Amino acid sequence: MKYIDVHAHLESDRFKADLDKVIDRCRENSVSVINSGVNSSTNREVLEMKKKYPDILMVSFGLYPIDALAKELEAHGEAFPRDIENFDVDKELEWIKGNSDECVAIGEIGLDYSFEEIRNSEALRERQKVVFRKILNLAKEIDKPVVIHSRKAEKDAIEILEEEKMKKVVMHCFSGKKSLIKRCIDNGWFLSIPPVITRLEHFKMVVEMTSIEQLLTETDSPYLSPVVVERNEPSNVLVTIKEIARIKGIDEEEVREKLVENVKKLFKID
Question: Which CATH number fits domain 3-267: 3.30.2350.10, 2.60.40.1940, 3.90.930.1, 3.20.20.140?
Answer without folding.
Answer: 3.20.20.140
